[in-house]
Design goal:
By secondary structure, this protein is an all-alpha fold. It is about 75% helix and about 0% strand. It has one domain. The relative contact order is 0.16.
């Protein structure tokens, strides 16, 4: 799935150049597919290494080691660009020391609408705050809830999303940015991991309802124009189809390499855009400037992966090896009791 992840990161980058595709924001569509992928991958990770309640803190450490090294690296670069190179960013107009500090913790960014007043150092990393919120709850969900309870939780989340879809509550926040209205999307990813009869029905219903709601939105201009309704629904449709297709394939080292670039591209592209705007006067992005953006972003992502992510990856592997060993020990103790 590495090539797919890199494609999603590239779509997020392109959306920040002002590109739209038939009126759709491609970045939002991509982010929804990221949510599904996250639910799928986290379910596999927890099942393999962190299935016991005692392993939950170790799972949190694993996720922190995944998110923070490159994030902090690019936060530092973005801060230098903003405060020392004087690149222009509308997201820092109301920045304070407190808000700047909160940006570094990732989790508060998931709730930026309540405190930041637009003050985000790397604007797209609000979604990492949502991811982090999901990471906090997913081991509790998978360890302590039955499959039936998880489906009921997904249904409750969908009802919140549906309320936002119709504009009864804030559509942008509860239909796209906060966990109560997006949890069911992550749980669709979980259903790919479970992959029994009930999960297949759940995915079929999710896909069918998303398609119906998208068609209904086009029949109702008010719903269609509410923030990102159509992009979220299209993202669900594309994400479900894509994972359904890709989960049957084994992937090459080249695919893994491309996937390794995706996080860096996601994090660094705004920095590349700022530099291009300031030093290359790229006020509008056409085919040539888009090519420069993507190539530069990939090159920078390769550097940050090689020097930042790879050492952290060894740390993550050691965490998981210890978790796997602990799991074996617990199994042997249980067997000896029997």
């Amino acid at each position: 799935m590495g090539l797919f992840r890199l494609l999603l990161a590239a779509l997020v980058a392109l959306s920040h150049t002002g590109l739209s595709v038939y009126g759709f924001n491609p970045g939002v569509v991509a982010v929804i597919s990221f949510f599904l992928l996250s639910g799928f991958v986290m379910s596999m990770l927890i099942e393999k290494y962190y299935k016991q309640p005692s392993a939950i803190p170790t799972f949190y450490l694993d996720r922190a080691v995944r998110l923070f090294p490159q994030f902090l690296f690019y936060m530092a670069i973005a801060s230098v660009c903003i405060y020392f190179l004087n690149v222009e960013s509308p997201f820092t107009a109301k920045m304070t020391i407190t808000k700047w500090t909160l940006n570094f913790f990732i989790l508060p960014q998931g709730f930026y609408m309540y405190w930041a007043d637009g003050a985000l150092v790397i604007p797209q990393t609000w979604s990492l705050g949502l991811e982090f919120t999901f990471y906090l709850v997913i081991p509790l969900i998978l360890i302590y809830l039955s499959a039936r309870q998880i489906y009921l939780l997904a249904a409750a989340s969908f009802l919140i999303f549906l309320t936002a879809y119709f504009g009864k509550i804030n559509t942008d926040e509860f239909g796209y940015r906060l966990l109560p209205g997006t949890l069911f999307m992550f749980l669709i990813g979980w259903s790919f991991f479970k992959n029994d009869r009930e999960s297949k029905i759940f995915r079929f219903l999710s896909f069918t309802v998303a398609g119906i709601l998208l068609v209904f939105a086009y029949l109702n201009e008010g719903i269609l124009q509410r923030s990102y309704n159509k992009e979220v629904l299209l993202g669900l449709l594309i994400g479900i189809l894509a994972i359904s297709y890709m989960k049957h394939f084994s992937f090459s080292s080249i695919d893994e390499f491309l996937g390794n670039l995706s996080y860096g591209v996601f994090l660094n592209h705004f920095i590349v855009i700022w530099i291009m705007q300031k030093y290359y006067f790229a006020t509008q992005f056409h085919l040539d400037s888009i090519a420069i953006l993507l190539l530069s972003s990939c090159a920078l992502a390769f550097i940050s992966y090689f020097y930042i992510e790879r050492p952290a990856l060894k740390w993550r592997h050691s965490i998981r090896t210890a978790a796997a060993h602990s799991k074996i020990v617990r199994s042997e103790r249980a067997a000896s009791v029997v």
